[in-house]
Amino acid sequence: MIKCVILDDELLAISYLKLLCEQIDNVEVVRAFNDPKIFLNEIENIDCNLCILDIEMPGMTGLQVAELISGSKKIIFTTAYKEYAAEAFDLNVVDYVRKPIKKERLIQAFEKAADLLSSTQKKEFIEWNTNIGKSTIFTEQIAYIKTSEIDSRDKDIILKDGTMIVLKNLNFKSLLEMLPSKDFAQVNKKEIIALSSVKVLSTNEIITTISTDSDQFLKLHIGETYRNSLMEMFGK
């Protein structure tokens, strides 16, 4: 299922695009915005995997918006102007659809998006800006993830060999979308564990295989909100 959010400064364009989307299988319009700033304030809290962005908007272009969200969402651009095509594809977006939008052309764009989303879910690595620059991190090497104590917008990844890498400005919701869902679970508001790092599981606590400075094994408190989903993952 493609869950998309629309951003276009013209209300008629939004209505028309929503109408087209409703006629296409496996596509759901979750939200629509006509103001880029409101869109940016809310997008990270919306359950979606694709954004359809108009390029020509007052105050902030769709290209500028895309630069801020391209790490966490797939993007389709719409525009009446062909001169933006080269710049749009430099951002590694899914597609560039010219207005007036035709249903058949939009279906092609959604098919591309579906293929990319499917391959992303199978990826064995994540790519993000870190404390050592843009990095590729292989998920099988990740043992544990926690919210940074220095800046809560950042996330500390602990690898199985003890190496720590800081993911810059990334929330847990977006991070979990990048990780293989069968291999990772959120334990509480501030911690994610690789299932391969779990040694003992009780209703309130996880004992991990991760050593601490005091030669003990790291223990994690299970938040009430996450308990049921964790137990289901382990067949409890």
From TrEMBL:
The modification 4-aspartylphosphate is found at D54. One of its GO terms (biological process) is regulation of DNA-templated transcription. PANTHER family: REGULATOR OF RPOS, TRANSCRIPTIONAL REGULATORY PROTEIN YPDB. It comes from the Bacteria. SUPFAM superfamilies: CheY-like. GO terms for molecular function: kinase activity; phosphorelay response regulator activity; transcription cis-regulatory region binding. This is Histidine kinase. Residues 3-114 form the Response regulatory domain. GO terms for cellular component: cytosol; protein-DNA complex.
